[in-house]
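Page 42, continued from yesterday. The earlier attempt failed because a stray header line got pasted into the input along with the sequence. Redoing it now with the clean sequence only.
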Amino acid sequence: MRNIKTTTIINEAKRLLIEASFNLPCDVMEAVKSAAKKEISERAKKILELVLENAKIAKKQKLPLCQDCGLVYIDLDIGPDICIKDSSSLNSLLNQAVADTYTSNYLRKSIVSDPLYERKNTSGNTPAVIHTSFTSSPGLHIKIYLKGGGSENCSYLYMLNPSTGEDEIIKLVLDVVKKYVTKCCPPVIVGIGVGGTSSEVVKLARTASFRNLEIRNPDKRYR
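This time it went through. Structure tokens are written below.
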């Protein structure tokens, strides 16, 4: 059994928050480069080139990749060999880590305590959305995602019949992308979840959208 202090987790969370805020992942960078080379529209090509230039400036000058610094998602996958000391305070400490990181790095804080009436800013971009899973894989894995409003504004959930086939789902996805793609922030990465309850399928779509772009489903039918 490995004992891990909460301070170790908090320090790693802060590091990942900074990494996500200022550095475009390598797989996304390569995908944008590839898209820019293939693009036949001069306007679209220019936009993709601006995305790459923006990423270089953000990394060099330690500036946010986007003015919308996102809602923070923190996923903790805890293996059977891990014991976290003082785990009862972990969520509050993670939220404090988010607030500290956003403040010290001058990241925009967008979260409000009440979405409908007072709309008072929480002043720390908190609370973060924290998911804890106990897995059969050894070790402790921390994943942090920053999800901005530009992607949330184009999230859609459809309740389909169990008899709905592959062709119908493909058509539905393509129709949605064609209709709403101009309302979200480019470059667009489409995450698709199929099956499960409404709440679970949204989580599947989020997982898919943040997965390394070089990874393909081992089941060829889903590629």
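Notes: Residues 10 and 93 are 7 Å apart (CA to CA).
Reminder to self: strip header lines before submitting.
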